[in-house]
Amino acid sequence: MTHADAGKRPLVEVCLETVTGCIAAETGGADRIELCADLLEGGTTPSAGRVRLARQSCSLPLMVMIRPRGGDFLYDASEREEMAADIEILGAAGVAGVVLGLLTPEGLVDGDATAPLVERARSGGLEVTFHRAFDMSRDLSRSLEDLVALGVDRVLTSGGRASVVDALPVLAELVEQAGERLIVMPGCGVMEDNIARVARQTRCREIHFAAPARVESGMRHRNAQVFMGTPAPPGEYETVRTDAERVKRFLAALG
After folding, report:
1. For the chain, what is the largest distance between any 2 Cα atoms, rounded to a whole number of angstroms?
2. Which tens digits make up the pLDDT trace of 53-92?
3. Gap between the Cα atoms of 90 and 128, Å rounded
4. Rounded to two decimals, what is the model's pTM?
């Protein structure tokens, strides 16, 4: 399904972190992909190899996360240089756009740091999404106007709350404030049982969700005394993968 024939329902973007996830999202009927690494960290920049294989394996527009690390959205000079270099590389790779977000220590959109990154993206023909760093800003209405002035295409937001369902009136106000100047895309906490309500009450044009399923490891030998990251699930012996059937259920629920 293309953007043009998505009809009256919102365009659907699926957030994921693997090449097989890209294939599953396309099979499930998604319209666009946000490709990240380390979703448990909120998403970081995926490898160049992953981006290349995703482009080869999937025909959907690919938005790629530009975030050099987890944690806050206050970046030093070397991190901003890394972000600019990644944007240039991704432009050459033929992706649809990039996803980024930078804040000042005072919790404002960092226009001085964001503007050159937006310009770099535009020079490579890339769209720009400002991610949920927006939700960490001190004044959502002001931040929205800052993003309009910077010329970004959209903002991904949960309305400044942990889940979109806790901020539906705020999201509706942001959609109205933005008008045609910028797309406000609700995301975080969008589930099969609320996606239709989120779309209806916010009147959004685009909506963002993940569609994960846990998959047991094929490892028969397991050393329970050692762990590479955290012993909490999923650990080393379970992976989380995008599920094509779950994407279909989201779309069916959306109507």
Report:
1. 56
2. 999 999 999 999 999 999 999 999 999 999 999 999 999 9
3. 12
4. 0.92
At 3, the pLDDT band (50, 70, 90 cuts) reads: very low
Altogether, the residues listed in the chain come to a count of: 255
The answer to whether the Cα torsion of 212, 246, 220, 54 is positive or negative is: negative
CA distances from 246 to 25, 28, 134 (A): 9, 7, 28
Q: How far apart are CA 254 and CA 196, in angstroms?
A: 5
Encode burial over 125-160: b for 16+ CB neighbours within 10 A, e otherwise.
ebbbbbbbbbbebeebeebbbbbeebebbbbbbbbb
Sorted by where each starts, the structural domains of the chain and their CATH numbers stand as: 10-217+226-254 (3.20.20.380)
d(CA 191, CA 247): 10
Residues 6+ apart with CB under 8 A from 107: 136, 137, 138
